[in-house]
Design a protein that fits this description.
The complex is a heterodimer. Chain A contains 18 helices and no strands. Chain A is mainly alpha-helical. Chain A folds into two domains: 286 residues, ABC transporter involved in vitamin B12 uptake, BtuC (Orthogonal Bundle); 108 residues, no CATH class. In chain A, 41% of the residues are buried. Chain B is of the alpha/beta class. Chain B is built from eleven helices and nine strands. A six-stranded mixed β-sheet of chain B has the order 5-6-7-3-8-9, with helices on both faces. In chain B, strands 2-1-4 form a three-stranded antiparallel β-sheet, with helices on one face. Chain B is globular, with a radius of gyration of 19 Å. Classes of the chains: A mainly alpha, B alpha/beta. Chains A and B meet through helix 7, helix 8 and helix 11 of A and helix 3, helix 4, helix 6 and helix 7 of B.
Chain lengths: 399, 263
């Protein structure tokens, strides 16, 4: 019993480590594909690994092996993924097909071929193919120390290359023409990014499987985008989310293993990452749904407050119920609709700002100056006291 | 490679940008055919011509942004590869996605890529260069603004600031006045004129014929082929405009355009 508990913990730690490092590398790599608007290409790359995987197996069996050596399988899958990538590029550049159409054609053809080969293998050599189909959806059941080490080394290399290239990649993703004009080798940068995706896919075959690895490449950067408006922060956030998804799913997989021993890890990783995404979609401050709604409410309040104060300044009664409630709650008017002292001074200030704005707008020379103001907030926020005094003098001269 | 133009003379060593026999095509139709151009040093040169004449392509091909079918380009009499650091390129504002996750300062710092390279940390002196560039275009208060929140004119100023940060000797701008407000247009032209006064060379793709004489001292008129190049007074003529624009411009309109600059 004691020994069993130890093995479980050791295995869980191994899986958590492997999946976590893989997740970090995938998050960082996926960020470039996402910023470059080529996220779908990762899907083509991963699906195109299947024929190579099966081809590698067949070749190893034909040469007298068991066909289960991981190195051979990974090499085969890398070759066929690279072929798939070349096919997408060829279709795009030579036939003027759009990239998404080319991806769709290549992805399905390669995967179809792979499924046929997989079926052949299963029919020809029943029993020996055990494990091959696990590379579709990922499995941690047979995870060895060497496997975890290989994944970790591959992922660490990917992470380092991503770190070195991230500045060039950001520049290329934002403004390709400018990058080329600076002398950056854009095709080489794109090729490097593809190579990283390929490396992540191959390294992740064992744990995540080839069908769902794309989730680990795309969901972390998409989630990170909700948290930050700057590429410089999206890279590390995506890496952290990828790593957390990988690590957490190792733990969850172990927890569920007594209930469902054959649960594929790829599916758990996707669900964990999707969970991060859903939570972020709600609560993230930069682009989350709640934050956006709150910003909108706040802006609406500002508009109503300003409109209400201007109406008061001109002696109108406020009929709009929301505006009336707002002004009342903020102490600008009493319950019977009469202005308070605070309301009086705020209304006068709003009125004065409107007059200043009208004056500035009427003089084309002030257009540059006026562009500092958002058209709604107090002028004292956009202009200095001296500048306002200057405007007021001109205003008095004009009237 | 197909050589459509043979010229044994060395390209002008004085010229910041000299082009010989440049042809570019997208597909089968030539966008530019055998264009020669010698930009005068310390000039402000407008590249004008009708829509689809190859104005933007000319800049892109000169910089190697799009591949050349034939022709040679020299920068200050030397090969492009060795002189890239002396060129600042401002692409069309609409060529990028302004929803990209970056703030104004991030974009301006991209102009320092040649100086900073792949890995070096951004130092205080780099920040100072970026801030100074922003101040020159009147955007110093916007350094931390998300680029997606900028108006068209502000976006153009940020692009100009990025090129200023490069501290180049030759500025190539692709339609810097397209879709910007009057205040921005005035601010940009004043920055460009200051560059000229500092001894820099400015080349801009331009499509507002009514401001050519007021803004520029040299003009290159193209319509797939080069129609005319030289000082505005000699190249910006009725005959050349009609050749470049065909029936699109009436003679009366052209006379008015030419008079616009003769105060």
């Amino acid at each position: 019993m004691g020994i069993m508990a130890f093995t479980l913990t050791y295995n869980v730690a191994l899986v958590m480590f492997g999946a976590g490092v893989l997740g970090v590398a995938a998050g960082v790599t996926g960020t470039f594909m996402f910023l470059r608007k080529r996220a779908l290409l990762s899907d083509a790359i991963s699906h195109a690994t299947l024929p190579g995987l099966c081809g590698g197996f067949m070749l190893m069996v034909a040469l007298g092996g068991t066909g289960r050596a991981l190195e051979g399988l990974l090499l085969g899958s890398a070759i066929s993924a690279a072929l798939g990538l070349l096919a997408v590029n060829f279709l795009k550049s030579r036939t003027r097909l759009s990239e998404d159409a080319a991806i769709g054609a290549v992805l399905s053809s390669f995967f179809g071929l792979g499924v046929v080969m997989l079926t052949l293998i299963q029919n020809m050599s029943a029993g020996r193919q055990a494990g091959l189909d696990q590379l579709l959806l990922g499995s941690t059941a047979a995870m060895l120390r060497e496997d975890a080490e290989m994944i970790a080394i591959g992922a660490a290399l990917v992470f380092m290359v991503g770190l070195v290239l991230h500045r060039a990649m950001t520049l290329t993703a934002f403004d390709e023409n400018f990058a080329r004009a600076l002398g950056l080798n854009v095709p080489l940068i794109d090729a490097a990014a593809m190579a990283l995706v390929l490396a992540v896919t191959v390294a992740g075959l064992k744990i995540v499987g080839l069908i769902l690895i794309v989730a680990l490449l795309i969901i972390p950067p998409v989630t990170a985008r909700l948290w930050s408006n700057r590429a410089a922060y999206i890279w590390p956030i995506a890496g952290a989310i990828g790593g957390a998804s990988g690590g957490a799913s190792g733990l969850i997989g172990a927890g569920l293993s007594s209930l469902a021993p054959d649960l594929p890890t790829g599916a758990i990783i996707v669900l964990v990452a999707a969970g991060f995404f859903l939570i972020s979609l709600l609560v993230a401050p930069a682009r989350g749904v709640l934050a956006s709604a709150m910003r909108h409410r706040k802006f609406q309040r500002r508009v109503h407050r300003r409109q209400g104060l201007l109406a008061l300044a001109q002696g109108y009664r406020i009929l709009e119920p929301y505006t009336r409630k707002l002004l009342q709650r903020e102490g600008y008017v009493r319950a019977d609709g009469v202005m308070t002292e605070r309301g009086q001074s705020a209304a006068t200030a709003a009125q004065r700002d409107e007059a200043r704005l009208a004056y500035l707008r009427s003089k084309p020379d002030y257009a540059e100056f006026l562009s500092r103001h958002d058209g709604l907030s107090d002028l004292s926020r956009a202009f200095t006291r001296d500048e306002l005094a200057h405007i007021d003098i001109r205003l008095e001269d004009a009237s | 490679m197909l050589r459509l133009h043979q010229n044994d003379q060395p390209l002008d060593p004085q010229s910041p940008l000299a082009i010989r026999g440049l042809s570019v095509s997208y597909g089968e139709k030539p966008a530019l055919f055998s264009v020669d151009l010698t930009v005068a040093p310390r000039s402000m040169t407008a590249i004008i011509g009708p829509n689809g004449a190859g104005k933007s392509t000319l800049l892109k091909a000169a910089l190697g942004v799009v591949p050349r079918l034939s022709g040679q380009v020299s920068i200050f009499g030397r090969a492009l590869a060795s002189e890239r650091h002396r060129i600042a390129y401002v692409p069309q504002r609409a060529s990028v996605d302004w929803d990209f996750p970056a703030n104004v300062r991030d974009v301006v710092l991209m102009g320092l890529y040649g100086k900073i390279g792949l890995l070096r940390r951004i130092r205080r002196d780099d920040q100072a260069i970026a801030e100074d560039a922003l101040a020159r275009v009147g955007m110093q208060d916007f350094a931390h603004r998300q680029i997606g929140q900028l108006s068209g004119g502000q976006q153009q100023r940020v692009f100009l600031a990025r090129s200023l940060a490069q501290n180049a000797d030759l500025y190539l701008l692709d339609e810097p006045f397209a879709g910007v407000d009057a205040a921005t247009e005035a601010a940009i032209i004043s920055v460009l004129k200051k560059l000229k006064d500092e001894g820099k060379t400015v080349v801009a793709v331009h499509h507002d014929l009514s401001t050519v004489t007021a803004y520029f001292d040299h003009v290159a008129m193209i319509n797939t082929r080069l129609i005319a190049e030289g000082p505005v007074a000699q190249a910006f003529t009725t005959a050349h405009l009609q050749e470049a624009y065909g029936g699109r411009l009436a003679t009366a309109q052209i006379d008015r355009l030419r008079e616009a600059g003769h105060y």
